Amino acid sequence: MKSTVKASGAFALAALLASTTLVQAQSLAEIETAAKAEGMLTTIALPHSWCGYGDVIAGFKAKYPEISVNELNPDAGSADELEAVRANKDNKGPQAPDVLDVGLSFGPAAQAEGLLQPYKVATWDTIPEDAKDADGNWYGDYYGVMAFVVNTDLVPNPPMSFEDLLKPEYAGQVALAGDPRASNQAILGVLAAGMARGAEPGAEAAEAGLAFFKELNEAGNFVPVIGKAGTLAQGTTPIVIAWDYNALSWRDGLNGNPPADVIVPSDVTLAGVYVQAISAYAPQPNAAKLWMEYLYSDEGQLGWLAGYCHPIRFNDLVAKGVVPQDMLDKLPPADAYERAVFPSIEAVNANSEAVKAGWDSVVGANVVE
């Protein structure tokens, strides 16, 4: 979810001035007053177990009790979010989302289609330049790395690498946490598999990843069911390839029943960034802006960190000394993250297009709920 374009000093100054102008055009107090008058915020694709969103939403509602939060389709994928905007361009009712949280490749695509409206939060300058659109159409929110979460009641010898997943002992056990034709999490799971085989991020890794999942499917190891905490616990999908923050949240939620391990695979550490954006057709545009201000405040960023996501302002928060030590202590060991690879936006886009186009013809596994 990172653009690789680095701003020059002049460009950065211009962006900052643009940010200041935009923020000053409508003060935070004015936004808050207008948002309370609107009285509602409509979100989409925010499961409470994802990145600590349950507590983040609760924090927003506690801070602004005058604004109700209408949560659409929590288990939707990034493609579903964009379709919801398209389908509700002329609908100002509760089925029209105000805000989006999508994978990196979907941000620029939505911008190019005219589905987004620009907005720059007060903390804009603390968001890394390579993790946001210069005009404020989309901006990085958090990142994690691809991991395995394993039901150790059923899998006492967890896989430690992508290549391990091909072993006969994992027959009928391996799933993706989404449909790779629509879900950013699943699409990047395919990218990770390709990178684990030495392919360069982008179309090359997509091709290698699709070949890997073809092998996995033909071996009988792939389960064409969207993996989540429930399917992990039930044993339908005892091994799920998912973002570390989801995996860790599911592990904690299961509370040992069944026990679960979270493993960052030894053959690749793929980092992925997600982005926030406001719909160009948002029925409650001021509530949407206030939501963004909350998410990018210290409080909102720490809410994501509590959900095991690395917030985009993480370095700024640490430098300010506002991250509680007990929160840092709950994060996974740092060594697995030191080798993290952040693919460029071009690579992410190329991979996304290739995976969505090739999954049916190469892998031929129809992934279902």
UniProtKB/TrEMBL annotation:
Its GO CC terms?
Answer: outer membrane-bounded periplasmic space
Keyword annotations for this protein?
Answer: Signal
The signal peptide, as residue positions, is 1-25
Keyword Signal set for record:
yes
The record ties this protein, via Pfam families, to:
SBP_bac_6 (PF13343)
Is Iron-sulfur one of the keywords UniProt gives this record? Answer: no
Q: Name one GO biological process term.
A: thiamine transport
Q: Name one GO molecular function term.
A: thiamine binding
Q: What is this protein called?
A: Extracellular solute-binding protein
Species name: Frigidibacter albus
Q: What is the lineage of its organism?
A: Bacteria, Pseudomonadati, Pseudomonadota, Alphaproteobacteria, Rhodobacterales
